[in-house]
Description:
The structure is a homodimer. Chain A is mainly α.
Amino acid sequence: MLDLIELLFFAYRNFVSDPDEILQGFGFGRAHHRVLHFVNRHPGMRVTDLLDILRITKQSLGRVLRELVDQGFIDSRAGASDRRQRLLYLTPKGEALTQEFVAIQSRRIRRALEESGGESRELVRRFLVAMIDPEDRSSTEKLIARADQAVEARSAARGRTAG
Amino acid sequence: MLDLIELLFFAYRNFVSDPDEILQGFGFGRAHHRVLHFVNRHPGMRVTDLLDILRITKQSLGRVLRELVDQGFIDSRAGASDRRQRLLYLTPKGEALTQEFVAIQSRRIRRALEESGGESRELVRRFLVAMIDPEDRSSTEKLIARADQAVEARSAARGRTAG
DNA sequence: ACATTTATGTCAGCCATGTTGACTTTTTTC
DNA sequence: GAAAAAAGTCAACATGGCTGACATAAATGT
């Protein structure tokens, strides 16, 4: 398995270096990328939810979140039903930046899947899920499924209103 | 591809957390793990080779390397043909620790491959290679092949002498 | 009504690990 | 004998983790 251990190291390093280059231009780092990514995937999420996903402390998150809000990449609105909550949304500016990250990382993955054969997508997906700690798997898969559904719902709504 | 982007994040986080727990007991971090791993794979490698693989600065490496040498995990010997070089070797202590990392990470990968079907190993391998920047692929694959061959050569030598 | 809990934010300081720049020593190479 | 290469070191700085302590606003329970 030594080869796969190392390939995972080299592959992941290149994978995260794509966003890194873009982030440099804004004076941001990887921490900012992660926040933007998950807020994009779960618009209106609470700060606590983000902490649970990232598994970092409130203080660590606070630093990068403040910069993202101050510089107009993220919008933080009080919750309607519970006004203690700060619900997080991307601004158009934040959305544009996040799309860059998604585009470049998707391109790398798509290329890799094409190069590794027809049925690779489902198999790679199963492999990655199985690499996650068993006790975290179902919550992780649910999280991803929820985000995917929300994307579908939003695009369906756009279809009805704007077209 | 959003699901795969996220699965890669979660999977890799768990993957590196295995060694992290062990390292804590020694007051070491991920940087120490990487150094031990590659010195294990390439016994007698030069400091420069390690810098090329890790892509960090001499100063960053210097800190962790000094700790590993001082605490008897790594042995640094002057090269025979070129005495400017410091050739790096694991001590028995370093070897024992490194085997722990390899064992726990191999176990996770093996389990994941089993859970994702029979032919997954070769496909996952091809996928990971294809995730690497094209210009780095051949050197990376050569590096891994060289390390694998060296392992074989050493175990063959053990077979002839000790058994 | 009042006490408690929850969600969030913030200050201060520490640690690990990356960076740049400058400089030294030893040894090899031309 | 000069230049280049391999390695090491000092100093200073950035990022992004961490702990601990504390503050505020709002919801919840009795």
